[in-house]
Amino acid sequence: MVELDKFLNYLKDKDYSLNTINAYRKDLTIFLKFSNNKINVDYNFLRTYLQFLYNKKYSNKSISRNISSLKSFYKYLVKFDIIKDNPCLFINFPKTEKKLPNFINYNDLEALFKVPDKNDTLGLRNLLILELLYSCGMRVSELVNIKLSDIDFNNNRIYILGKGKKERYVLYGEVCANLLNEYLINSRPVLNKNSEYLLLNKFGNKITDRSIRMIIDDIVKKSCLKLNISPHTLRHTFATHLLNEGADLKIVQELLGHENISTTGIYTHVSNEHLRKVYLEAHPRARR
User: Fold this and answer.
1) CB 104 within 8 A of CB 234
2) pLDDT tens digits, the chain, 288 residues: what are they?
3) Which of 8, 70, 229, 288 has its C-alpha lying 20 to 30 A from 175's C-alpha?
4) Which pTM value belongs to this model?
5) Exposed, middle or buried by CB within 10 Å (0-12, 13-18, 19+), for 36?
6) Which of the residues 125, 188, 235, 236 is marked catalytic?
């Protein structure tokens, strides 16, 4: 549809991420199919459409994303006088199902790190991928876009352009620093010494999000861990381990690049082992 194509191009001009644009395209294509490409609809029609999604067993999270897509689309249509009234003004988001973030315990984490072979070109790269995700807590989309010029080797930090074009620095420690140097000396020149990007695929090109996810899947499979682990799980683990070891919530918020501290608050859950340890150490009647 012409209006949808114009809207998506508008988002590109506004520097929206490719993932966001693709999500809008997917959601709005379904909506326009439901409406027979009719955009001048009213509030009641939108309620009927949302009920259609509920009947299709969409989760509250997916419905919220669809509502966001509709709100953005209709805001655009009104702004450019394509339609007069915005039918989304009184559409509310459903309550989201809050789930505790999945994280990896210390023993399982060590099992993952033992899988990649440091003596292999790609094995060393894969080990660095694991280390950067865990040591820095970055998103996979941020990881694949790291350029060599983004790394401050003197201060062990990396410049990140995150969600919403928000700038921040992530820090890394001695273990990651040593691994990074090994990769830059032994692996990266073999892959492509001229690329501006840090992480490269076997053809010497910038690695993709999908490739990172496949690498993590392969490592988990070889580790024999019966866990569902994604790159984002390592971000969850980064935050959880920091908080479990006493890091301030505000600091973790800055390191994760969260706009609101309430988002970081989901990580204030702690492992049962840590709860037990704190209880035994802190409660006067827990000790004999």
Assistant:
1) yes
2) 789 999 999 999 888 888 889 999 999 999 999 999 999 999 999 999 999 999 999 988 899 999 999 999 999 999 999 999 999 999 998 876 666 678 899 999 999 999 999 999 999 999 999 999 999 999 999 999 999 999 999 999 999 998 878 899 999 999 999 999 999 999 999 999 999 999 999 999 999 999 999 999 999 999 999 999 999 999 999 998 998 888 888 999 999 998 888 778 777 765 555 666 777 787 777 765
3) 229
4) 0.68
5) exposed
6) 235
- Let me know if 235 is a catalytic residue: yes
274 is catalytic: no
Round to whole Å and give the CA distance between 89 and 57.
24
- In the residue annotation, 236 being an active-site residue is answered as no
Residues 6+ apart with CB under 8 A from 83: 39, 40, 74, 77
Catalytic residue among 74, 172, 183, 267: 267
* Ordered strands of the 167-171 beta sheet: 151-152, 157-161, 167-171
